[in-house]
């Protein structure tokens, strides 16, 4: 099936017009002038970030208006992505949720031992180092303290339902290594599935493998395994429903990343599945998890505002001279955080997004925040953890991005390796599922600013002295002329972590 973007009248549109339509739909009932302004924007690719920034302030204002805005946007996004039969991705997920017998489950139990949470490290000291270097927010330290003080905390009876579970930053393998149980949704790919099956057998966990009934004739499990997140959305919904009947709690986790406009479609599939689950599964039997991006428009605690301005004031004379040179070219502009009043009190608003990611990426990733906030309002346990810039294979395969990542350390920004990112995110999820004091706990989710910002490992992209957008070109140039720094990437048991202490 081919899915396309539609306008409210059902006509096919491109990804740019679709993004405008979604944002306009979000605000048309409460702020019609803003909606008309969005639709009239003729230079969307240049100016889209400013509209997301303005919208983000509404999301944390009046609770009734915010809920209307976010629900309208999510409904439009999932209903207006349709296949050639004019079936929406949301409709397919709803239909699949009541269907039975579409997927066979094959369990693969590992024979290994549970891995330590982090090798050769005191968790609290490790997180304290990241917080002290502005790589993470203070709640990350509280999370790691909780795990340090409660070493018996294990995945236990929770089943991780990993959407795009074979993605490089998916938590599936780490959850298995920690002794957990994982149901993986990933497209058919014999090589990738064989690697995952081998990992599962070596681990202390159990992997649940989906097999479409139609694919059951192939001899090897890795040849039969797999569900495509978009094409098989109905079958995935059916499988999720069937598993939820026998599991004590299912943790639906979203890991999909696909470049370009397809990211919106993949995210719409994830959201449609989450919406169906939230509607039909009891709150006590469902938790939701996102691996969120730091490159978003942000509303967070006031202390970030103060830290950004403090770091800009504290620059030395040589740094000021360097910055003056680069400002001639529109780079290294001063951070401009804004204090706003939210339902959680005085908070900071700023733009940490990157035009290099594009409007499709920002719409897809920001919509995760919409769903997290809506789901929390509905009483679900929501683990919304912000991941650091990650040195993934796709990043490292691009030479210019290698230079960028080398140069980021000059601004105090430290990407994490893919392995370190996965383990950090798995540990934060483990804490959020078990700690009643976590921002994720339903009893605490009334503070929606903390819900979506407190548990963040952003690699310092949120605590810069500069506008986030204005450092990337300079970092690339500086990285081109720099030697490889073994501390520039945070690895598991790396020199960079020893620096953190």
Automatic annotation (TrEMBL):
This is Unannotated protein. It comes from freshwater metagenome.
